[in-house]
């Protein structure tokens, strides 16, 4: 965005959303259109499959990928309104969008999503693993095994399932981009299970990059700090939502459009053909 762009600062609306949270219901809408970003065909003729692409970071990435010339497949859980909105934004960029409703914890669904994407577009060039589950818990004693399992199965198994499912359709020059988190770099007192999964995603990224190097498939991760998406109003108490991002050096949360250009960079062979196995922190703070 231009240097003149002014981003919202806390306090945000002290709003709570029922899980999984709809972007359409947020009182303060996330900024994702990146109107100052001009596409230049970096992804022309490519196809990207994006999990959690209905809202937040995933929506912003879908819009910029389409602006760069890629067709888009969106995997989402059950947020039909958000998914349809994202499809309209992708189509407004002149590209096709396929919506795939299902749960990334289910390996059969992931295989079907990859198959449908391949059938529709004739291949897959980019996988963005972005779907996530997050729920604050103050005390370890209150964190149940069922909740820990849900977070792990969504955030780690989901990435594993999608990577395996898309691998038959990826080719030399393809890219996998995983969404990590600053919590996976630093830990988080009240996001014990979530931060554990994000640390695992960072290790998975580096390991998978080595594993797929001989096939010419690059694997990288982006580790965002606080980003204004439905994930947090659907999780944190309203008073915490109001001050979300205030503890960063920039004193505010990121907007999704501040993250999406990094996903373009890591997807486009013209930008990052010699980069694999990195975890890129975009945290709003010096030192990550």
From TrEMBL:
Stretches of the chain forming a coiled coil according to its record: 126-153
Keyword annotations: Coiled coil, Oxidoreductase
InterPro entries for the chain: NAD(P)-bd_dom_sf, Sc_DH/Rdtase_CS, SDR_fam
One example GO MF annotation: oxidoreductase activity, acting on CH-OH group of donors
Protein family (similarity comment): Belongs to the short-chain dehydrogenases/reductases (SDR) family.
Descriptive protein name: SDR family oxidoreductase
